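Workshop exercise sheet. Pairs work together: one partner reads the sequence aloud, the other fills in the structure field after running the prediction. Swap roles for the next sheet.
Pair: D.N. / O.F.
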Amino acid sequence: MVSITQNSSQRLRPEENRVYKAARQSMRDLDRDLPDILKGAADARVQALRAWIPFRDATKGFSFAAAVSNLL
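Structure field:
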């Protein structure tokens, strides 16, 4: 799990990397104050990213404008 996020963050530009790290810290801070049953923000983000990557790759090159113009 960690390797996917580490590899992704290493390719990001410095500002994006800083924002990513701040967001992860914010998720950890949020979890610290929650009851155990509600914790898991950082893990949920990683799961969402993993679910999104195949969608992103499958729709590479998809043009919404072209799809809409084909409907008209």
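Discussion prompt: The longest helix spans residues 14-32. What would you look at next?
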